[in-house]
User: Fold this.
Amino acid sequence: MFGETISLMESLQITLLGMSVVFMVLVLLMVIIVVMERAVHGRPSKKVEAIAPSAPQAKEVEQPVKAGDDLELVAVIAAAAASSMGVQPSNLIIRNIVRMPETAPAWNLSGRSDLMASRSMK
Assistant:
């Protein structure tokens, strides 16, 4: 078995047979995953049903934002940034502050807070 020599055609046949077996198993796994997904989640219906509100929802009342609140928020952010960078707040120029939406997953937020907590303060 180990001392035999095989021809080029035989080696190509063995290679093609091995590759086709691997490909067929991958296709079989893909079919199994699709079937399991449909069994768990169900088949999505193509009908779009109009959902009637059962109870009237309360309208959100926007509270006017005071300019003093925004200035106070900018001052707090400037002080925090200056403290973390080790400079005086008067030497810091803040051009724009944009609130980022909280669309990150929980594990991302947890990792971010751990990273920020691990940094040493000067």
In short: Residues 67-118 form one domain. The two ends are 70 Å apart (CA to CA).
